[in-house]
Structure formats: structure tokens, C-alpha cells
Amino acid sequence: MAEIPTDILDMHCHTAGIGSGSECFVSDALRNSWKFKQYLRIFGVKKQDIEAKGDLLVMERISNWIQESRYVSGAVILAMDAVYTNGEMQEKQTEVYVSNELVYEGCQKYPGLYFGASVHPQRNDALEALEKVKEQGAVLIKWLPSIQMIDPANPQLEMYYRKLVELDIPLLTHVGDEDSFTSAIDSLSDPYALELPAKLGVKIIAAHVASSGSRDGITNVQRLLNMMEKHPNIVADISTLTQYNRRKYIKQILNSDTLNGRLLYGTDHPLTNTPLVTPWQFLFKLGFNKCRQIAAIKNPWDRDVELKIALGFPEQVFAKPKDYLLD
Ligand SMILES: [Zn+2]
Known about the structure:
Helix content is 38%, strand content 15%.
């Protein structure tokens, strides 16, 4: 088996905020759903502790885990901008808002954390906001089009894309169907919708290799591969690929020539802390002893790295986020 790499950068890591000492919020619908309690649990925090200590507690917890990890030494923490239409923030349509301010502050305060900003392109100040976060050290811009109501194919976004190119900041965008929120418009996360930014030369990171759903009888994975064959400026991340509904694509992804050298290691924390990613799903491939050994690893990052190594992801996938994002 491959040597397990160290000093890894996890380029896809979420935090959350409920408005305790920050402008972050979650919608009432989410707060009242069973998912809210589950999210707190997998983030490893208690509601009363966040209320007492503030939203940064979630990032402090991540930083501690990262420092305890044997293999991972850094994580890109992703903000999540609100929904905007015609320049106006749509609070009622926003399920989760994680502000750039909060994430920036946490990255300043806690070791091992890197700023992944989120700037909705329909904000009136979108271009200035991109410049600001770049100055603050943001290593990428994150979108979740199907939730944030962003149509990547909208020709009005051309200036925004040109600004990304000018600032040399990659766009990490969700592709494929979304299942972590209460509702989503999946057509906005079609890999083919990325034609415009790809053509304009934006460095695009396609999240999860689009490993969910299909359109016109073609899986989103295949749609992404078709795009990547045309556009060398698209890469993809392997976050949450071990989830039970995504694992069926692992073999295709590992065997794809198109993806060779173009995969980045990420976790999608906190989703690595759900039973949906248990190594026991791979009992047939890994064997009993290996599954038991991995399942017993306490640190979520170490468990994720060991599982993905055991499944055959090559070492370069784990080294790539540092090269790609930090130079
Ligand atoms: Zn994610």
C-alpha cells in the first residue's frame, strides 16, 4: 500500500454560524429540522457553547482537530454567501449564510486555517468584494449555485469572471445534484453550465467530481469529464466521494485518464463525521481488519485520509491542494 503522505492541505472544509457574535444565520426551516441538531453534532459543538463563546468556536474546533491530525496540517475554510437577486440580499431565500468576515477572522486567529471566501456575483459590490477578499488572503472563491441561485452561464457574469482571472483566484463550485439542504435547483449545478467561465480562462475547481445525479441521460460525472477534456483550466476535488450515494463513481474516477493529475484532496468536513462515509461500505474491497482499523481512527481527517489512500487515491492527489492553492 502507498506511503501515507503528511502535511496535507484539505481544500474543502465547512464551518457554520448561528449569529452568535457574527452576522451569520441559518433559516428557521433548517433550525427547526432534524438536520440542525445533526450538523451541530458532526461539527463537534454544542448549541449552548456557541451561544456562549460565539460562532468562531466551530473554527477553533476545526483548528484543534487539524493540529491533532497526523497527516493534515491545514484546511481551507469556506464561507457561504447569501442568495442575491438584482443586487439585493434575499434573506428569506437564504438557508445558510456564513460570512466572509467570520471566516477571515477565524483564519487570522487559529493556526492551520486558510480563507475560502464566497462572493455572490449578483451583489452590487461583487467586484470590489472580490478584490477585498483577495487582499485578505483568500485562496479561492466558493459557490454553491443550486442553493445560492447562481446561474454560471449568465452572460452578465462576464465581468465577474474576468475579475477572477485578473486576481488569479480559483472558483470552487459545486457541480452535480445537492442533497445537504432542504431544497436545491440542480440545473444550476450542471457541469455544462460552466462553459462561459471555462472559456474565459477562470481556474475552476469542480467539487466532488460532480458525483451525483444526471441530466439528459448522461451522468454529471461524465458531463464534467467532457468539459475537462475541452478545458485544461478545470480541476476537481475528491471531497465526500466516500459517501454511500457517491462511492459508485470512485472506480471510474480512479481510472479516468482525464482526471489524472487534476484531482485535489478535500474532505467536505463535517460530512466526514456522518455514518454515511463509514469504511464498512468497502468491506469487500478492503477486508475486515482494514475496515476495523480505519473505523477506529478518532481524528476525522486521519480517518478520511487513510480511507481514501486504502481505496487507491494516489499520493499526488493529497499533495496537489498545496501546489495549486498556496504555490
Ligand atoms: Zn462542501
